[in-house]
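Regression test attached.
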Amino acid sequence: MHALIKYGREDKNVELRDIPQPTDPAPGYVVVEVGAAGVCGSDLHMWRNHQSWAIKLPLVLGHEFCGTVAAVGADVEGFAVGDRVAVETAAEVCGVCAFCHSGDYNQCPHRLGYGALYDGAFTQYVTARQAILHQIPDNVTFEQASLTEPICVAYNALVEKTPVIRPGDIVVIQGPGPIGMMALLVAKLRGASQIVMLGTDVDRQRLAVAGEIGATHTLNIDADDPLELVRSLGDGYGADLIVDCSGVSIALQSALEMARPNGTITKIGWGPQPLGFNLDPLVQKAVTLQGCFSHLHATWERALALLASGQIDLSPIIGGVYPLGEWEEAFERMEAGVNVKSVLVPAT
Ligand SMILES: [Zn+2]
Ligand SMILES: [Zn+2]
């Protein structure tokens, strides 16, 4: 079967290759025929070899996916051939460490994530353990369900980890990529009254989409001053919550300026660049700075419920659906900011 493989550590060391199709799943595992797989900003980083996380090589890319159960191993309960399932990203965890025992398996030190340390989903069939499967509601399409994972990233950061958003709050989101857009949708559901989406020159089209899906203000930081905008809102003391989805370390400096005293900065985006500024504003304004990573089982059920109820509508975000053979166009259109999100359909 065809698979999109990162084979080296140079720019664009990614190509389609043939790999063996998984059959006969082990006890507790199923084989999923991939129905759709979302292209993540992190896939673009790995394509360009800009990733700041550990990966194996060669690697089948892709970690946002769903599909149809094609084979079921022994001891699997509650899932049968033909079921439509969304699959979490933690392909393997150890099951015996302190984090696994306490249910926080997203922090398992032995976690192997699809499309990073475990072969991913930009291919036709993937093996998955039962614990990470979720039934897809009948009215949710594969294209939508493939984006459950980025919804979970935003939901985990803005709801599970940030119980402080109140109706009436001012929320600033740095970076209108897919995760920034999901953060915008979740902030809106939480009742934020002003939502500012910040981008750069390359984000013109993405900022327009952000306006369509609920940002009250959008701003290109290459052209205008975000601090001035944020201080013009509410009582003028700054934003209650800043969500960094930019993937650029220096965004933290601007976040510290925009945060109001006792405000919160939630960091979702990664960034390999070291920082060279002082953190005194964090102390003086008593700002809470927190990191957020991945998600857990209950968040997946909630994200799928939001898709089923229509409270989250992804249609303005999905810029294009492509067969696996056209992966390069799918990647390029996301990198150029034309598509907020590209989705690959490996069976076509
Ligand atoms: Zn992702
Ligand atoms: Zn563990």
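Expected vs. actual: identical. Residues 102 and 169 are 32 Å apart (CA to CA).
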